[in-house]
Design a protein that fits this description.
The complex is a heterodimer of chains A (174) and B (192).
Chain A lengths: L7 E4 L7 E5 L9 E9 L13 E2 L9 E4 L7 E10 L9 E7 L2 H15 L7 H25 L3 H17 L3
Antiparallel strand pairs in A: 1-2, 2-5, 3-4, 3-6, 6-7
Helix pairs in contact in A: 1-2, 1-3, 2-3
Chain B lengths: L2 H23 L8 H22 L10 H25 L11 E4 L6 E6 L10 E3 L1 H5 L6 E6 L4 E5 L9 E5 L4 E3 L8 E5 L1
Parallel strand pairs in B: 1-8
Antiparallel strand pairs in B: 1-7, 2-3, 2-6, 4-5, 4-8
Helix pairs in contact in B: 1-2, 1-3, 2-3
Chain lengths: 174, 192
């Protein structure tokens, strides 16, 4: 039995509505487990709507260690915890992995869509184009703010930045 | 449109932003001139488009207009190149770049590099001048090599004269190879 330290990575794919969580625990298969599950809370400490709490991430159902959560309608700042439940506890091992993330795909796609409207569709001309330019920069700044807030451990700050960015996108007439 | 083309376009956009920043921050322009205002807007346009494209690069296959936007970015970069050419005819101290070479960078770093050289269709080593020593002292972190197209070999260049005629400022952010879009008369290899 090797000592393990639970770890996860969080990523997003092409769809902004999905979030991919990967169990990246090194030497995980040197121990045996009765279960594996996820606890995901938003910036208010509330569990994700439309999902049970905890979320099953069992070895039987997810043998590759990858789970994709879908149904997100906006970018969220999340606290994600993966818990491994070993058959026999190895004292030096760490069975809980925690990551804070700020999703960004909706903001990224929002900026992309504005640029598309400006440069390809010519839906935004004159002052509207300049306003869209400013809006795009504002969204990019908020995207950056969200990542910086996560680095400083402020999920609420990250969520506030994401919400401000999404509000800019929502207010942009395309 | 290959991924190499797209990456080169994004790199070119990055360089275009740096050129505009350089021109603005070094007060090469009259601040009230229309060119200055235009460049400010162009820089923002290039930045937001470049950012939206780089953020979505991994997902480009799902974005039907991604390639069209890349071409818009290329067009913007060409406008900056055109500005460079126009500006060179305005300010005789920073004029004709026709002696420009392709810059080949073989290792990434973030050190600003200034290269100075004469307008010569067949530049020799002596034609190239640099503020090499003033910038990096006697213990430089990189070396500049000149490429000899005839022999196909590189030779170390370590000139330090400041008698300059032409000036290009390059801020190199990552490993890359790119063309300045002008007649190529030689190569400079910069390596750490």
């Amino acid at each position: 039995m090797a000592t393990i330290t639970a770890s996860i990575t969080i990523s997003q794919g092409a769809s902004p509505a999905s979030l991919i969580i990967t169990d990246t625990t090194v030497n995980e298969n040197t121990q045996t487990y009765t279960d594996r599950y996820l606890t995901i809370l938003d910036s208010n400490g509330v569990a994700l709507a439309d999902y049970p709490n905890p979320i099953s991430f069992s070895f039987i159902t997810y043998p590759t260690g990858i789970i994709t959560l879908t149904g997100f309608t906006v970018d969220l700042a999340l606290n994600i915890v993966m818990t491994l439940v070993p058959v026999t506890v190895d004292i030096p091992s760490v069975y809980v992995a925690t990551e804070d993330v700020a999703m960004n795909r909706y903001l990224q796609q929002g900026v992309y869509n504005i640029q598309e409207a400006r440069f390809l569709d010519n839906d935004l001309v004159g002052l509207a184009s300049i306003q869209a330019q400013y809006d795009s920069i504002d969204v990019i700044i908020e995207q950056q703010n969200s990542q910086t807030a996560v680095l400083y451990g402020s999920l609420s700050g990250a969520q506030n930045a994401l919400t401000r960015g999404q509000n800019v996108i929502n207010a942009q007439i395309l | 449109m290959t991924s190499t083309y797209i990456l080169n376009a994004l790199l070119r956009g990055q360089r275009a932003m740096l050129i505009v920043s350089d021109r603005i921050q070094d007060k090469f322009l009259y601040l009230q001139s229309p060119i200055y205002t235009e460049l400010q807007y162009k820089q923002r346009d290039i930045y937001v488009l470049w950012k939206s494209l780089t953020d979505n690069y991994a997902y480009r296959a799902t974005l039907t207009t991604y390639e069209a936007l890349i071409n818009v970015l290329v067009g913007m970069c060409q406008a900056v190149d055109s500005f460079n050419s126009t500006y060179s005819t305005i300010n005789t101290n920073y004029q004709d770049l026709s002696g420009t070479t392709t810059i080949v960078v073989d290792q990434g770093y973030v050190t600003p590099v200034k290269l100075f050289f004469t307008n010569n269709d067949s530049p020799a080593i002596a034609d190239y001048q640099t503020d090499y020593a003033s910038t990096f002292g006697n213990d430089p972190t990189f070396a500049i090599y000149l490429y000899n197209g005839t022999t196909g070999s590189y030779s170390l260049f370590s000139g330090a004269s400041e008698s300059l005629q032409y000036d290009i400022t390059l801020t190199i952010l990552q490993s890359a190879s790119f063309s300045l879009g002008l007649p190529q008369t030689g190569y400079i290899l910069i390596s750490t």
